[in-house]
């Protein structure tokens, strides 16, 4: 949520609080009358009464406003799906690149051990193997946690 929208919401909340405080100061009978008329609305399209007034000013305007709201919603959903798809592809690509790089480093370590550089080869292969196992175990634990939070 951007800062301007948050400020609008806080401003609206302050205004609503002021209205409620004003109503509470009224006599009981007037409170009931005010509360029965107090109406709040929030949504991607204007309140039906407001749409009706737009339509009175310009016939067909309400229909255009509603259609625009529907198109905006469809567009937003499409962008969200694309973002999720790109994130999934990026994650898979990173995993394969990490796996490939790990195998290469472990292979180089094994080659060093074969060539007689036992300590260097063992350290290189061992650290790479432990890192790869940690990466995959960590990512599977992270996936389980995400799935549990989604439920």
Automatic annotation (TrEMBL):
Keywords: Membrane, Transmembrane, Transmembrane helix. The chain crosses the membrane at residues 96-115, 121-138. This is DUF2335 domain-containing protein. It comes from Ligilactobacillus agilis. It comes from the Bacteria. The keyword Membrane applies. Pfam families: DUF2335. The keyword Membrane applies. Residues 1-23 are annotated as: Disordered.
